[in-house]
Design brief:
53% helix; 2 strands; two-stranded antiparallel ribbon; mainly alpha
């Protein structure tokens, strides 16, 4: 399940991406109000996104946040890994957080592992394909329908 932290991060990033053309940074309070995210919680999320280079900030009066990379390069998988860790449902199929299962006797021939590996592959493909830009495009398409 997607954590609130990841969900809020995605909503905040989408809000900032929508505002990209405005030429001014987006204030934390503006995002919090628009996206109904608790201000203090959002501050910590935005700081984490800045620390990994997804966002950049401008300090002082009129300061706020900008995307530090094109929206086409920021995938759901990247954001979710930052806040929720592994995407895989089992540690033995994780790309970045691999760990063997304690009870497993023969990982190479584990039928359970093959099912969860397939799930991880398909999930990761979908999450990597869905960037901020792709979601905004989908949002525009849904509004037209």
């Amino acid at each position: 399940m997607l954590s609130k932290k990841s969900k809020y991060a995605i909503n905040a990033l989408l809000y900032i991406a929508r505002m990209e053309g405005s030429g001014h940074p987006v204030m934390t309070s503006e995002i919090a109000e628009s996206e109904n995210i608790p201000f203090k919680f959002l501050e910590a999320i935005l700081r984490d996104l800045k620390n990994v280079g997804i966002l950049r900030s401008q300090r002082g009066r009129g300061g706020g946040y900008f995307l530090n990379q094109p929206a086409e390069e920021i995938s759901l998988a990247r954001v979710m890994r930052l806040f929720d860790g592994p995407i895989a449902l089992l540690p033995c199929v994780s790309l970045n957080y691999y760990r063997g299962c304690e009870e497993c006797k023969d990982e190479a021939n584990c039928a359970i592992r093959t099912v969860f590996l397939e799930i991880r592959i398909n999930t990761l493909k979908t999450l990597n394909e869905n960037t901020l830009a792709a979601i905004l495009k989908r949002e525009t398409h849904l509004k037209r329908s």
